[in-house]
Amino acid sequence: MSNAPTLAQQIAQLAQRVSVDGLSPQVREATAQRVTDALGNALGAAHLPVVDQMRAVVSGWGGNPQASVVGGPATAAPNAALLNGTMAHALDFDDTHLPSVLHPSASVVPAALAAAELSGASGPELLDAIAVGIEVTCRLGMAGYDQELGNSVFFEYGLHATSITGTIGSAVACSMLLSDSIDATMSAIGISASMGAGLLEANRTGGTVKRIHCGWAAHGGVVAAQSATAGVTGPPTILEGRFGFLQAFLRDRVDLSAISDGLGDQWAVERLFIKPYPCNHFTHSGIDAARAMKARGVDPDSIIALTLGLPTPVLRTIAEPANEKASPRSGYHAAFSGPFTVASAFYADNGLGLFHEDFTDESASDPRRLALAAKVSCEANAECDAIFPYQFPAILTATLADGSQVIEKVLANRGGPDNPLSAEELATKFTLNAHQSINESRAQELAHTITGLVTGETTPRSVGKLLSGEPR
To answer: How far is the C-alpha of 235 from the C-alpha of 226, rounded, in Å?
Structure first.
């Protein structure tokens, strides 16, 4: 066996180095923004039926009150991570890394927060652990990105990379907070690799299981780190080994250099895309194209047909099966529909584009939206293919009753590094999400407390305290 460090050992060494030296204020501030976004999303989802169902499951398990839960009593750390991670991802409002096309914060933030509350870690320690966990999650996702294919191999195999790689990223973050040992972190990676899972079929034909994927990843991360701290060991070659993680999920279609090259020199947390709309990220440029048409005075009643040009790999998620997407069976399924989201953008009147009220079951059965959605045809577009997956572009063409056509191109997503949301837009998103569960003064206090983590003015336990309590 080679004396060179394995990939898991390299990651564990990075984790220890960051634990000792800390990260820059700039990286910590970017991480605090991701914490704010993730916890805002969790507050926005606290009332969902799937969350109530998972609360009932966790309540039946019992457990020591080690960590806080959004809108409920404290529970054992893995259980808190499960519930908070479910909420952070359930609205499909969570951040995105490109071109891996995964959502790292929804698992890593809840897992690390639970571990930090359990260990009594400081604010900077929490943020450093989250930044490393997000980095690991994204690098593992990039190991499965096929440049020639222009898509994630995970997705090609029907695998949900977010929950699969998020389990390992969560384990690394939790290990940094629960143990100071390179060996323990390496074992946490080895243990968590056996826990990562997630299939994408629910995106196609229904089911709410995807909403708990990030919760289960966060749960697995906490359990793996706790197990490693207790002495359970994992194989050092768990990532690149013959029967390891990457071979199992990606076969031979893997890029090992995506994990190791430049590790610790640059941080994915500074380059994440923040969603402006609570729906699948592939739909966003189509929404913005429709909003631009509306702003130009296009009346939806005058539209004969709409053609939504998309990157080819996107079609399977938001355009197929065509009948399901044109007439989604619920508000949740509407969030994964290109035709429905485009149609809704013409009728939404809250000034923000689409928000939670546009993805209720009632909205999904709105006859005006369904009638317009039935006029939307989704097709592969070569110009979009050339850009994807570094952006999720869309080209919308409307054919009007007078025979004229209107075309809108949106080639760079709002919320990404090339088209970032303003501080005001980020604050509005957090506030509107938070108001689904807590009042305005408490929301403001929570936002201030999360910001205080950067300097150590506040602690993870103070954040947790503000998150708990029954949702209104």
So the answer is: 16
